[in-house]
Amino acid sequence: MAQIIDGKAVSAKIKEQVRDEIAHGNIKAGLAVVIVGSDPASRVYVNNKKKACEFCGIKSFEYALPEETTMEQLLELIDTLNNDKNVNGILVQLPLPKQLDEKAVIERISPKKDVDAFHETNVGKIMIGNYSFLPCTPAGCMELIHSTGVDVAGKECVVIGRSNIVGKPMAMLLLHENGTVTVCHSKTKNLAEVCRRADILVAAVGKPNFVTADMVKEGAVVIDVGINRLENGKLCGDVKFDEVSEKASFITPVPGGVGPMTIATLMKNTLTAAKIQNHE
Ligand code: NDP
């Protein structure tokens, strides 16, 4: 039976460290969160980010824009935030309404304030291993892997999913720690067979209960990034928890696994951004 990796506990520790560093160093840090439209899931994420800021002593600035916001209006706000000395980090909650070009919006954020690490400049820096921030979800997954005491070096690591925000950077971070990394996607052949090779298996697919026990090696570390809402309103991951936890050595639950880590890393990144900007 697998040991459950407690994302709430690991993330609480990180937030406490951020809070203590801000308090003891008397550091001024601010995070602007921009939300466009009224997607209920996005609203929940934004509220959680606000709460985490309050806990850490980070000033949060929230901009709730209407669904029909134009590109021009949104880019104007980003320019203002880029120039605002009280704002060290800027986060635009995704997804954006259809009329808005997500890529252009992300590229408008100053790379120094891009605490999500989605800007091309930051993505490039991560690729060559010379970065200030790591993308929040993959970095959170790495912290959870570290919390198990399992060393990534030399391990077979399989990531299911190749999105720019989870799968690809996740693979890169595992590679930086000397894992032997395979990235799977919807065109991968013999997926179950590839997954069974994994000592560390990361699922970032967005399909409920996608990873079943027959896809998992005995004793593997299983990280479930998926957040899927079922018809009954309950949240569920990409991994069929009940059966996979019988086989894995460590497993993250949903909720309470990767989710809280994403926010904790965001707090850490905002502190890093503030420290860099305050010394300029
Ligand atoms: P995307 O939809 O952007 O990517 C999904 C990936 O899964 C794609 O690369 C896709 O392949 C792959 N995929 C889909 N079907 C299959 C299949 N049958 N076999 C193998 N691979 C498949 O999702 P995201 O990366 O943005 O998010 C993934 C999940 O993680 C979602 O549930 C999301 O809600 C969650 N998430 C959770 C976060 C957290 O804080 N815990 C943060 C961000 C996301 P292809 O590229 O070929 O289409």
Overall description:
The protein has 280 residues and is of the alpha/beta class. The protein folds into 2 domains: 26-110, Rossmann fold (3-Layer(aba) Sandwich), CATH 3.40.50.10860; 136-259, NAD(P)-binding Rossmann-like Domain (Rossmann fold, 3-Layer(aba) Sandwich), CATH 3.40.50. Helices cover 41% and strands 16% of the residues. The protein has 10 helices and 11 strands. It has helices at 7-24, 40-56, 71-82, 102-108, 120-127, 136-148, 167-176, 191-195, 241-244, 258-278; strands spanning 3-4, 30-36, 59-65, 89-92, 156-160, 180-184, 200-203, 221-224, 228-229, 235-236, 250-251. The strands form 3 sheets. Strands 1-11-8-7-5-6 form a 6-stranded parallel β-sheet. The chain is globular. The termini are far apart. The mean pLDDT is 97.
Q: What characteristic shape results from the CA principal axes?
A: globular
CATH superfamily of the largest domain: NAD(P)-binding Rossmann-like Domain
By CATH reckoning, the class of the largest domain would read Alpha Beta
The number of strands is 11
Question: How far is the N terminus from the C terminus?
Answer: 51 Å
What is the helical fraction, as a range of percent?
40-55%
Based on the coordinates given, report the CATH architecture of the largest domain.
3-Layer(aba) Sandwich
Annotation keywords:
binds NADPH dihydro-nicotinamide-adenine-dinucleotide phosphate; 16% strand; six-stranded parallel sheet; alpha/beta; Rossmann fold; 280 residues
Write the layout of secondary structure elements.
Layout: E1 3-4, H1 7-24, E2 30-36, H2 40-56, E3 59-65, H3 71-82, E4 89-92, H4 102-108, H5 120-127, H6 136-148, E5 156-160, H7 167-176, E6 180-184, H8 191-195, E7 200-203, E8 221-224, E9 228-229, E10 235-236, H9 241-244, E11 250-251, H10 258-278
Parallel strand pairs: 1-11, 2-3, 2-4, 5-6, 5-7, 7-8, 8-11
Antiparallel strand pairs: 9-10
Helix pairs in contact: 1-10, 2-10, 6-7, 6-10
